């Protein structure tokens, strides 16, 4: 079957959708009950579904191709071309990007459907779907781009959509500020990304292989090995700068602070953008450039170490939070850390595997949390929940599946993907003991993950319902907790009336996506069944051609081996058993404190009390936000005010001063003109007049006087003439 | 018409001047229609010029390394001094011609309800002629005449139709530019007396022809190859052009002029006039004195360019007046042009010229949008609004579009030119260019912070009844906005247009590195 060069339609469908819904929103359409609103509600998810179907078509094509040529490449038109610098609008589909396409469109479609229910009452529904479709389109551009620069359109474009959607309810200043923070923090990473792109281009150009196309970069990355920029090995510097870019987008230390604030957006947005797709872009980028990163062992270790450190510290914060969305936000940061740990030890397929399973179970958890927030009439504080299993059985069951999956309980998907990563870290530790330290931290974090996720489940769904579910006296929570209260429109009027009534289960458009995602979170592990469970690690083999870069360059001895072989079945089984045990320990502790109908919750509270300042320190996120505010935000603002003052007073003062000197000079010249130059003229005229007065005496009227003057004059002339000659 | 296309484009709107002047009092309202008509015609003509311009075939090449001038018109003007009416365009000037007609057309729409329309539109037309003349002149004397001609209408347009401190701003603008052009005049005279365009040794032909001056060996004597006076000539020219760009520390006239100028004049000022500075640097400094440019000039330009980027952005962040903020953002964005120019390689030079065009369109949008809000609220205090997005969503959407274009969002035109300037810079000055990437962060910071303060948050009750952006205002934004959108996705027409000319300039400079 001939392949059709239609991959461009995959991002184009939602792009067209974004344009249309944007137009409807712009012209003031999409009001409750209008025909345009009904169109948006059906067609916006429909656009994403079309992309999903097209993705399935291309998957079927790729499945039918032999491994060596499993690559579709569609070049549409040249984009930027100046001498050697050439890029095109071109898309590629290989085993990695098709997987991401299906996750984005599949999970994206479910979240679109969910949003129809969740946002039902919102006035600005078409604006919402315009941006959600736009996000989907740009995320697809990000993963399908065949070159770095086009990927950067998607990279910053999803950041734009994130900004717009975090601040969707922009009338709340805190939400709008959260969007702004997200964009600016991301821009710091993007500046490093830009530097990396162009340094990479010139270094490759000087080696005769300048290109932005991923396949070329990966093939010719070996040429970087003997080259240095500022005395640093080129591959290390470029990979390091790219990783800084990744820490922004994927919320890792030191640029993670925007993600918790990003929870200000509508919950489906948190699920799609800030859990399932956008935040994984950094992991995707590293995997996509695996040929480059494999040549930078130092940076790879930094990636792994940063990942596991972030995972650990974020998990600690998650343990202390009361807001259900904040718990999930820190959990996302933590899980992204695991993915970086995976790609950092060179286990790219394990990282991508976890990316996929995480997309399922974290989207599920966020959507579940959204369902709870709806059912609880816009309450997000878990201390005011409890016993919701009774009122919201479907939400509770699906949320539990999500918790089991993320905790890594066999046989749910998280068990396979997380243990795959930890196993690869142990493997790496065999040759380099530093990785064993990372493994230990990773294991501790796994126990903590199980603990805080079960904690969120127990607090929300078990025990007894708190007395005033709709109360807003948020002790430790923030003012932005009533995030979704703005969604009140005419449609939600009913919800407003029973504000103090019992929690209720959510509508079908909300529940169906939950059930489907729960199914995916449950079984996705089967895609990569390890050998000790009689599997053949299908996903690993499916992806591995993407991470092996042929004969183009030889990897030096110091570089990280491409992908670890999965032959040591027994070791893997041991590692998996260890991971499973860790999950059970965490879940067990959680059950002791928060389960058992919550009898020991007071104990947990008392323990936090004993920990006192430590707890406060962690609860307040180690005061990193405050630190950044002091160190960077305020100093930049002070500098900018200083510069503005300097500009107005010194530079412009100089200009005005010089001008004033000229004015002085000209008035001085004016005085001189009046008194000296013009004065001289006056003096001369006076002199002439004076001479005239004196000379008047010669006018006697006597003829003999005049004759005498004439003779004297003639004599004088004669004397002068003679003396001159 | 074909042979005299450039003269038509330059002078045709002059026909509007007598037409406007004889209008009886009752029909004064027709003045804007007349000028709009003529600006529309020259806009159409410049688009036609774009399509007629032959990118691939060399026409009228002076020598192998000089750009191919097309649509050349030549007539003797002052024979005793060998001054010619010599106009022509290459890949450097066609984008500027197009930018000038587009922005001038948009400016007429933005001036729709101005007072004292007769005088305003007559001066506006004269301003157009001066600007266009600068971009098409190939004779340095002619160039200088147009350069000065442009000053006078600008002086009156700011001085009469401006804000509270209009006299100060107008005089500052006038004197500052005049101060710079005195130095240009000195070099102009020097070029004339120390040039010999005639190849035979027994005859000396002095010339103002920029193409001939650009040819190696035309400048002789104290301005001959390698002469130390050439360095002074380069610096004197630089000073003249730098004030116009404006390059730090000669930029302080800009915020004052912008704040006081009426909307359309701010648009022209930022959209077109600033480009005359960088255009002059490229056309005169780069082509006529390439050795000095490569030896030290480019470094000066890059260093000051980076100061412009960072300093301009930081200064913008501290502003309280919306128009002043955008004025400083121009300082920052023109820094990218200088970064690209200083890189002296293909991507850098293309990026510089493309950034000149893109800054012209983007900043026009920004000033038009400031004008919209100023017309309604009668102030521009950033902290005096708040929550406008809920009251005037359409206006907020346009502003968001313009802001994101200005901060270089990929997919819009500004990104491509900034990226090209960066890539050019990274080849030659990696450390300095890394410093300049901080402009990317600062740009996002001050624009989004402004967005936050003006449009987001709780709606300010005082502006509950603020009027939404009108159709006329949307029509004034549309032409420039379209360029921003289309060239972001498909910049090839513009890049291909510039490429052959810049491809000839680049080796000329490289020879001296």
How would you characterize the overall build of this protein?
- The complex is a heterodimer of chains A (about 725) and B (about 525).
- By secondary structure, chain A is mainly α.
- Chain A has helices spanning about 10-25, 35-65, 95-120, 125-145, 150-165, 175-205, 215-220, 235-250, 260, 265-275, 280-290, 290-295, 295-320, 325-345, 350-375, 390, 395-405, 415-430, 435-460, 495, 510-525, 540-545, 570-595, 600-610, 615-620, 625-695, 705-725, and strands at about 70-80, 85-95, 230, 230-235.
- In chain A, about 55% of the residues are buried.
- Residues about 470-500 and about 550-565 of chain A have low confidence and may be disordered.
- By secondary structure, chain B is mainly α.
- In chain B, about 70% of the residues lie in helices and about 5% in strands.
- In chain B, a hairpin with a 4-residue loop joins strand 1 and strand 2.
- The longest helix of chain B has about 30 residues, at about 345-375.
- Chain B is globular.
- At the A-B interface, strand 1, helix 5, helix 6 and helix 26 of A face helix 7, helix 12, helix 14, helix 16 and helix 17 of B.
Proportion of helical residues of chain B: 55-70%
User: What structural class is derived from the secondary structure elements of chain A?
Assistant: mainly alpha
H-E order of chain B: HHHEEHHHHHHHHHHHHHHHHHH
Radius of gyration of chain A: 37 Å
- The strand count of chain A comes to 4
Largest pleated sheet of chain A: 2 strands, antiparallel
The strands making up the biggest β-sheet of chain A line up spatially as 1-2
Oligomeric state: heterodimer
Which strand-content bin applies to the residues of chain A?
Answer: under 5%
Low-confidence stretches of chain B: none
Specify the overall morphology of chain B: globular
- Give average pLDDT of chain A, whole number: 84
Largest sheet of chain B: 2 strands, antiparallel
| Most residues in contact, chain pair and counts | A-B, 55 and 63 residues
Q: Give the N-terminus to C-terminus distance of chain B in angstroms.
A: 43 Å
Percent helix of chain A, as a range, is: 55-70%
- Look at the structure and give the mean pLDDT of chain B: 91
